């Protein structure tokens, strides 16, 4: 398995060094295979040990890790016949949020998800995965199309938040997200939402209301990033690590709180260490979840969705 490209996180360094040693040994024909196997076993044991000690902040770092698969990586590796759909029919297209038709195991689905860039040029073009109002309105247009043709919807969530620029606010960022929440809550098709990396604020929930909300093991999901929370409370980002624990933004925390429905395990070290295995894992989970959702009558599905959302909040009269 190739070593992921850097920069490597601090807690990854021991594994990276061991992996480099294994690669060097494999180039030497005189080295015994048993020696290599011993080192591979040692590396896997080290990865398991590190995984058992990860903090909430470490999970945030992994969710942002360079080399982690993005929406279009999953689309290209899991689905077939993908056709991207563009434009909101009001203002324009938004490369930060992709939508399109595809097939999963021969069955047609509608896909949408935030898309970050893999280099500086693409990151700027895709606005670092922070969608504008036209992105959310494009998503809603495609959701309505999916409803018309009775296609299940799969959303991939990976954003630092909706874009907060003046132009976005002038074009109705809050209204666009709010309308999506309202429409998705009663949309008459199965909706499967998956947090694959970062899931921040309204930018995440703008395509995050569905029948099942899943999270990758090293993703995070919350109303604000730890840095922003620290800046608001303390004037700078110095408390981000402590606050990331308090905020309950990891998959484990949210599963215990019954906010998410399922945690999707990642390969040892994280999705960036073995993307191909991550694709296989996620494909199996999606097929299983959609099969389960398709067993319900649509009226029952919508009723269960609304009840699930209503049960998340608590209030005292």
List the helices and strands and how they pair.
Layout: H1 13-26, H2 33-51, H3 56-63, H4 71-78, E1 80-85, E2 97-104, E3 107-114, H5 120-125, H6 133-148, E4 153-159, H7 166-170, H8 173-186, E5 191-200, H9 201-205, E6 212-216, E7 220-222, H10 226-234, H11 240-246, H12 251-256, E8 262-264, H13 275-293, H14 298-312
Parallel strand pairs: 3-4, 4-5, 5-6, 5-7, 6-8
Antiparallel strand pairs: 1-2, 2-3
Helix pairs in contact: 1-2, 6-8, 10-11
Give a description of the structure:
The protein contains 14 helices and eight strands. The chain is of the alpha/beta class and 317 residues long. It has two domains: 10-53; 66-312, 2-enoyl-CoA Hydratase, Chain A, domain 1, CATH 3.90.226. Strands 1, 2, 3, 4, 5, 6, 7 and 8 form an eight-stranded mixed β-sheet that branches. α1 (13-26) runs antiparallel to α2 and α10 crosses α11. 40% of the residues are buried.
Structure at a glance:
The chain is of the alpha/beta class and 317 residues long.
* Rounded mean pLDDT score: 94
Distance between the termini: 57 Å
Q: What is the architecture of the largest domain at the second tier of CATH?
A: Alpha-Beta Complex
CATH fold name of the largest domain, please? Answer: 2-enoyl-CoA Hydratase, Chain A, domain 1
Can you count the helices? 14
CATH class of the largest domain: Alpha Beta
What can be said about the biggest beta sheet?
8 strands, mixed
The SSE order reads: HHHHEEEHHEHHEHEEHHHEHH
Shape: globular
Strand content: 15-25%
Q: Can you identify the CATH superfamily of the largest domain?
A: 2-enoyl-CoA Hydratase, Chain A, domain 1
Structural category is alpha/beta
Number of strands: 8
Helical fraction equals 40-55%
């Amino acid at each position: 398995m190739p070593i992921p490209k850097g920069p490597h996180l601090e807690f990854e360094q021991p594994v990276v060094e061991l992996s480099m040693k294994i690669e060097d040994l494999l180039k030497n024909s005189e080295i015994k295979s048993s020696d290599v196997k011993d080192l591979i076993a040692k590396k896997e044991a080290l990865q398991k040990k590190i995984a058992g000690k990860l903090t909430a902040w470490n999970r945030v770092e992994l969710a942002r890790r360079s080399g982690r698969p993005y929406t279009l990586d999953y689309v290209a590796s899991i689905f077939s016949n993908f056709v991207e759909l563009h434009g909101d029919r009001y203002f324009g297209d938004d490369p930060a949020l992709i939508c399109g038709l595809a097939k999963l195991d021969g069955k047609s689905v509608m896909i949408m998800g935030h898309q970050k860039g893999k280099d500086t040029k693409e990151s700027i073009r895709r606005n670092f995965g922070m969608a504008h109002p036209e992105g959310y309105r494009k998503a809603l247009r495609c959701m309505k199309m999916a409803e018309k043709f009775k296609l299940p919807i799969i959303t991939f969530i990976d954003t630092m938040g909706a874009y907060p620029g003046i132009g976005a606010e002038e074009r109705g960022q809050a209204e666009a997200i709010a309308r999506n929440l309202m429409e998705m809550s009663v949309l008459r098709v199965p909706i499967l939402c998956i947090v694959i990396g970062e899931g921040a604020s309204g930018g995440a929930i703008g395509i995050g209301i569905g029948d099942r909300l899943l999270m990758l093991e090293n993703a995070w999901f919350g109303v604000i990033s730890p840095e922003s929370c620290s800046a608001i409370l303390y004037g700078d980002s110095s408390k981000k690590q402590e606050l990331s624990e308090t905020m309950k933004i990891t998959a484990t925390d949210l599963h215990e709180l019954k906010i998410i429905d399922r945690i999707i395990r990642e390969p040892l070290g994280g999705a960036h260490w073995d993307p191909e295995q991550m694709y296989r894992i996620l494909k199996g989970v999606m097929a299983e979840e959609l099969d389960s959702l398709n067993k319900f009558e649509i009226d029952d599905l919508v009723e269960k969705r609304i009840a699930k959302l209503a049960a998340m909040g608590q209030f005292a009269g």
